[in-house]
Amino acid sequence: MPNVIITLEADISTDDIYPGRYMATVLPTETPQYCFANRTDLNEKLKSGAFPKGSVIVADQNFGCGSSREQAASALKGYDLTIVARSMSRIFLQNAINLGLNVVLCPGIEAEEGHELAFEAGKVTNVTTGRTFETVRLPEARQAIIDAGGLIPYTRKRLLQTAR
Amino acid sequence: MGMTVVEKILARAAGREAVKAGDVLEPKVDLAMSHENAALVINQFEAIHEGTGIEVRPWDPSKIAIIFDHRVPAESPKTATNQKKIRGFVAKHGIAKFHDIRGDVGGICHQVLPEYGYVRPGFVVVGTDSHTTSHGALGAFSFGVGATEMASAWTLGYAVNIEVPPTIKVVVNGEFPPMVGPKDLILHLIGVLTAQGANFRVLEYHGETIRKMSTSGRLAVCNMSVEAGATSGIVPADAETLRYLREEAGVTDAISPVTPDADAVYERVVEIDVSALSPQIACPHTVDNVKPIDQVAGKRIHQIVIGSCTNGRLDDLAVAAGILKGHKVAEGTRMLVFPASGRIFGQALDRGYIHEFMRAGAVVMNSGCGPCLGVHEGALGDDEVALSTTNRNFKGRMGNPKSEVYLCSPAVAAASAITGVITDPRKA
């Protein structure tokens, strides 16, 4: 069952998730080492492999605000984290979908570090507290990109259709 | 049913009669802008083509703009190598709208694009930079995307699966008091809307204050619209837009302004009267933590920054130079100035502003993003405080999570440089 590894406040910026001084690093294989680099404890734990795949970050509103830097999404994706937030900034949400990072919009989510969450279509259950919260369904157009496995395969398919 | 300006632009770009908020469409892209992150766009662009047997070639190199600004001159071998790779791509595909690291035609992307007439009213502009909202100042629908989304646009020539955003109409009236201007307006508006108040929405600007505002001021307002989460800020094109494009950007071909219908449907209307507005300060660590200056005046400042895509334009430098004339930057405070483009730097030299800054003790730096995003210039020490005309004050923004950044207008920054504390320029 996925575990909540940290809960974060509102307005977590992409500067926080992936500081500007590492922006010259672009490869998805290299960006994860700088994930939350300004939060030394969290960064070290992520790098040490302390969290299994599917671990969850729970955030308040407006997660991923600020810069369009895609490294913020690719760094989180590198650890196969799931981000559950009360709301997300538009560009971050699109980057996450485009790269196949697992994101869940859940306006009412209440969870603490160490809690266990279970995901089903349309809802998240906090197994520890026994409470269930509704999630926001993504627009069909965005879901189509997720279903294709991300924007690269989605665009490749469209390119092949156009070329035919 | 009438359409907003962005609905009209998107309808045209998608070849439809009419669209409304919530519709999904695929608008043709008129301009696709990137900076150094084109290095990542190129990777993703190549990945899209992998295994298709289709030649890796952008749909229309004449519609791609690449401007080096984020880390110029390069701060590391890694950046320099990325820039080298991009130069190779530019040469291979004949991308003419390329601005390398140069003192004449170089600068920050959000200044270079308007300055060279690359953005026109009615355009759909995508940029791999969140402040791409800036170009709404010229009546374009202009929004930020990530690198993979840009690679997709380079491949197909249109943006995939775009939902038409709802629009908030912002009506601004009244005359700015002395020492109060567009930056104070946008900071105030972000405080009113909050950091996510316009998320997934367009801010469409109207009112006599906007009509009388120069393109420079409109660029600052649209630039920071993203700090309220907006997909785009937009000033429907008018006489000032045409004047700017003809006289300053040297555009000679046809320009077709797009304006909203009188019966356009807005999600809400926000009205602001600026006639009693005071200088505004965004306090750490969110841009919507906005206070009138009297609540923070006297705060000790270690570093003053004037410049960036928000406030590094000629009128910004003129205001700051005017205030600094005959004064010195306070002991214990350092001041950095970085004009938004090489052209502006040259104009500021000709008018003596650069001389005023240097005589006052400021360090004048090359055009670029510089200290704004904490990459390689002007980092702050532990517990230091910066007062800056840039657009973000997030924790760690200027390279150090143990420092603080306050945001303000050029007038406030210049007045505060003289005293070393946050100072109301009306009382200086």
TrEMBL record, chain A:
Domain of life: Bacteria
Record keyword Amino-acid biosynthesis present: yes
Stretches assigned to the Aconitase A/isopropylmalate dehydratase small subunit swivel domain: 56-101
GO molecular function: lyase activity
GO terms under biological process: L-leucine biosynthetic process
SUPFAM superfamilies membership: LeuD/IlvD-like
PANTHER family assigned to the protein according to its UniProt record, in alphabetical order: 3-ISOPROPYLMALATE DEHYDRATASE SMALL SUBUNIT, 3-ISOPROPYLMALATE DEHYDRATASE SMALL SUBUNIT 2-RELATED-RELATED
Protein name, per record: 3-isopropylmalate dehydratase
UniProtKB/TrEMBL annotation, chain B:
Transmembrane region(s): none
Pathway involvement of the protein, from the record: Amino-acid biosynthesis; L-leucine biosynthesis; L-leucine from 3-methyl-2-oxobutanoate: step 2/4
The UniProt record lists the keyword Transcription: no
Keywords noted in UniProt: 4Fe-4S, Amino-acid biosynthesis, Branched-chain amino acid biosynthesis, Iron, Iron-sulfur, Leucine biosynthesis, Lyase, Metal-binding
GO biological process terms held by the UniProt record: L-leucine biosynthetic process
Top-level taxon of the source organism: Bacteria
Cofactor note text: Binds 1 [4Fe-4S] cluster per subunit.
Domain Aconitase/3-isopropylmalate dehydratase large subunit alpha/beta/alpha stretches: 81-420
Matches recorded under InterPro entries: Acnase/IPM_dHydase_lsu_aba_1/3, Acoase/IPM_deHydtase_lsu_aba, Aconitase_4Fe-4S_BS, Aconitase_4Fe-4S_dom, HAcnase/IPMdehydase_lsu_prok, Homoacnase/IPMdehydase_lsu, IPM_dehydratase_rel_enz, IPMI_cat
Self-association and partners: Heterodimer of LeuC and LeuD.
Role of this protein: Catalyzes the isomerization between 2-isopropylmalate and 3-isopropylmalate, via the formation of 2-isopropylmaleate.
Similarity field: Belongs to the aconitase/IPM isomerase family. LeuC type 2 subfamily.
Protein name as annotated: 3-isopropylmalate dehydratase large subunit
Species the sequence originates in: Mesoterricola sediminis
Gene field: leuC
